Amino acid sequence: MEHEMIWEVPGVFVREGVVVALPLCFPGQTISPPAGETAIATLAFDANATTIYCGTKGTRAHVLTSMIYEDRGVVIDVGAVPDATSVDGLCVCENRIFIVASGKNGAALWSVAEFDFDHSYSLIQEWDLGREPYEKVCDLFSEHSVAQAIPVSDGCAMIGIVESSGEVFRVDLKSKQKDILGKVDKSGHFSRALVLDRSGRLWGSSGLAQLWVCDVSRGEVECTDMEAPAAAGRSPHTQVSAWALDPFTGILYGGTTPDGYLFKFDPESRELVPLGKPTIHGSISCMSVGNDGRLFGMSGAEDDIAHMFSYDPRSGALSDMGIPVSSLTVREYGYHFSCAATGPNGEIFFGQGERINHLWVYFPSVPRRVPVRE
């Protein structure tokens, strides 16, 4: 008697919480930017942490804005940044969005009016959507691109690293003054991922997976003797590819490429603790700490399908949560992700980095209450 073989692999997809992929448009009213222009490279919140801005890269670079609360639930294209193929950093300051963007003519600082979700009409019945023109604030580098730029603690300046030279720079958003603070690695071996700790110091990695730190207030770059974890003999190939700050404890989490190791780091005591390898994949691409203290992230290289993972500092549990899939709004499978940020209600935003993309939102599960026995 022949038996029918049933192929069933339980637990392949994210099995805790809910994952939703939002199209990069106002469904039925606007259209997404063209394919090849929507790879989300950076995320930033407004001052109230209710509106999230996305910067893309591709044939042209766009700034997108989204609000998922109340009756909004849309993503809107603010427009293509002039002469840019990559948005490298975003910052909201005094009701304007500041954009560090790179293209064939180098890197420049642009600004555009902040999208006013709070005072727009109800998006259930009527809407008044418009685009404001971009204004060039200043040129940054005429012959070089910026790898990444992030806001400093007070939000009035941005600090970043130059793609080709490894120079760390700071630009004041009001005075337009640009300062070169130092160089992280003269040989050009350095990570493009950056993070600020709670004290406002900038961290990254350079040759042999060594961590470096920049004291922004003093303008000094220090190459430390601390190394990110790597497989035996792999330090020359290893860089920190993703960072996440726990704003409650001040702990920094780092993830590496090409082997995908996770570690935690106390920037005050400079104690670095390897946590292991969260998935079978190499290259941790992005991470963010949730409101409950758990770390959520994505791993996977160009030829992989992404796996979401989590780390719980209370129990020490490191979990491969499975492949991201959205069965709500649109059915999508997530292959590559570039950035992550935590929303005010604990939801995690993930920026997809493919040819056709969505803004993904992960809603972690809420633990059940445990009965109290008398």
Count of β-strands? 30
Helicity level: under 10%
Fourth-tier CATH superfamily name: YVTN repeat-like/Quinoprotein amine dehydrogenase
Total helices: the number is: 0
Major pleated sheet: 4 strands, antiparallel
| Unreliably modeled segments | none
End-to-end separation in angstroms reads 57 Å
CATH class assignment: Mainly Beta
Adjacency order of strands in the biggest sheet: 1-30-29-28
**What name does the CATH topology carry?**
Methylamine Dehydrogenase, Chain H
Strand proportion: over 45%
Count structural domains: 1
Proper CATH architecture:
7 Propeller
Overall pLDDT score:
90
Please compute the radius of gyration using only Cα atoms. Answer: 21 Å
Description:
This protein is mainly β and 374 residues long. The protein has a single domain, classed as YVTN repeat-like/Quinoprotein amine dehydrogenase (Methylamine Dehydrogenase, Chain H, 7 Propeller). It has strands at residues 18-22, 39-45, 52-57, 62-67, 74-80, 86-93, 96-103, 106-113, 135-141, 146-151, 157-162, 167-172, 178-183, 195-196, 202-205, 210-215, 220-227, 239-245, 252-257, 262-266, 271-276, 284-289, 295-299, 307-312, 317-322, 325-326, 332-333, 337-342, 348-352, 359-363. The strands form eight sheets. It has a four-stranded antiparallel sheet with strand order 1-30-29-28, with no helix packed on it. Strands 2-3-4-5 form a four-stranded antiparallel sheet, with no helix packed on it. The protein has a four-stranded antiparallel sheet with strand order 6-7-8-9, with no helix packed on it. The mean pLDDT is 90.
